[in-house]
Amino acid sequence: MKIALAQLNYHIGNFESNTAKIIDHIYKAKQNGADLVVFAELCVSGYPARDFLEFDEFIGLCDEAAKKIATECIDIACIIGLPTFNHKDEGKDLSNSAYFIEDGKVKAVVNKALLPNYDVFDEYRYFEPSTEFSCIEFKGKKIALTICEDLWNTIENPLYVTRPMDSLIHQQPDIMINIAASPFAYNHDETRIAILSDNASRYKLPLLYVNQVGAQTELIFDGGSLVFDNTGKLIDELPYFEENMAYYTFNADASISFEHPSTLKAERPADIEQIHQAILLGIRDYFYKSGFKQAILGLSGGIDSAVVCALAAETLGPQNVMAVLLPSRFSSDHSLKDAEDLVKNLGCKSETIAIKNITEAIEKALHPQFNNLPFNIAEENIQSRSRAILLMAMCNKFGYILLNTSNKSEAAVGYGTLYGDMCGGISVIGDVYKTQVFELARYINRDKEIIPINSIIKPPSAELRPDQKDTDSLPEYDILDKILAEYIENRCSSAEIIKMGYDEQTVRRVIRLINLAEHKRYQTPPILRVSPKAFGMGRRMPIVGKYLS
User: Fold this and answer.
1) Under a CB-based contact definition with an 8 Å cutoff, are residues 234 and 264 in contact?
2) Which one of 135, 189, 267, 305 is most buried, by most CB atoms within 10 A?
3) Is 300 labelled a binding residue?
C-alpha cells in the first residue's frame, strides 16, 4: 500500500481554497501511484475555526466541500478532517471528524475522542468526545485512524481516562495513522516525537503522522510530519514551516519504505533558529491571509524595532516595509544613525517625522490642567502616543499594517505605553524575551551585518527622558527573563522561585508587575506564539485579581 502524506497550509473558512488544494493533491497523489492520501485534522474548515463552528451554515459548507472532494476521489482513497453534526440527542452538537473516502464515497467516519481544553485549545467547547472506536479496512489491511490528541494520553500524568488505541489494538490493526493540527512552540518538536514514538513502540505498529503547516493569526503550525516503524524508531520527518507531500510504502512485512531522500536531522535545530522560521511564517501568513502586502513600524534604533524590521523585510520584501523614524527631543544621535544604517542595510523604505513640535503642542494644551507639575510618566507617554497617532494615520492613508515591536519581557511587566508603543495589527516578538531578542539579532546577522552592532551592544533604552535606561525601572534582563520564564511558562509560585536562589524582593516585585500589567496585555494586538506559554488566548488571567499581586 502506497500512502501519501499531504502537509499543507489551510485558510480558516476559505472553503474554495482549501477544497481546491485538497483535490489538487489528490490528483498529484494518484499520478504518483498512491493508494491513499492523508490530509490534516480539520483541513476542510481550517483550524482553529473557533466560534465559526457555532454557525450551522459553516458546518453545512464543510459538508458541501467534503462532498465535492469525494466526487474527485476516484481510483484512490483519502482521509480528510472536518467538523460534522453530532446526530445523537445527547452531547454537544458537533464532532471533530475524519472521513475515509474511497471511490467517491465516504466509507468510514472516525470522531476524535480526546478533546484538549488547555492552553490555546478549546475543543471541548465545541465537540462531543467519541466513545466508539473502529479500524478501517483498506487494501486487505486494517488502519487504526486517530486524530491528534487521541495519541497524547501516554504521558505519566494522563489528562484523560481513556486511550483510543487501547480499544483499537484489540481489533488487530496493521498500521496507525494520526491526522493533526499541532501548533508550534520552540520545544514542541521533541515532545511530539517522544509521544508518537512511544505510541509506535507501545502498540508495536508503524505510525504515520501528518500535521498541518501555516499560521492562523497568532497560532503557527510547523508541519514536521513524522513516520515511525513498529519499534518506535523515527524513520522520516518532513520539512518544517513549508508545504510538502511525501510517499511511503507499507510493505507486507509491516515495514515502511520510501524513495525520497530522508530529511531526518542529525540534531534538532536550535531554539532560536526555529523561532526565526516560525516568526517569518507568522508574518507571511498574517499578511497573505488578511489580504495585505505592506507593513509599517516605528524604527527607534533599538534592538526590538531593528529585529522586527529585519524580519518583516525578509518576509515581505524590503520594498513592502516602511520604517518611520520618530525622533523626540530625547532621542540620541547614535539611535538615529543606527536606525538609518539598518534602513540602508535592508533597503526598505523610510520616513523621518520629528515629534518634538507635536508633543510640545500637547503639553502646551494641557498646561492649565498640569499646572506646572513636574515632568513624569505622563509626558513620557505623550511621546509614545504621539508616535502611535502618526503611524496609525499612515496606516489609514496608505493601507499599511502596523507591526508591534514590544518584546515578551516588556509585555510581562507592563514596560510599555498603552495606545502608544503597544498598539499594532500583529505583535511580532511579543512572545520573545529580551534575552532571546539579542539571540535573534545575532542569528539574523549570522552571515553578514544586517542589524547594526551598536543596536545590539548598547544598553536598552526607551529614550523618553534624559539618559533613560531600561535598568532604571527593571532588573537586568538576564535575571528578569529567568524569573519571568519560571512564573509564566513553568507556573512556579513566588515562594518556589525564591527557593531557586533569586532575590526575594526582586521576585515579588516582578510578579506584582506582571499581575498589574494584565489590563495592558488584554488590549494589545495578537502575539505570534513561539513559546509553550504565550500571552493571549493560552494564558487567561483576571484583570482585577489579587492573587500574587
Assistant:
1) yes
2) 305
3) yes
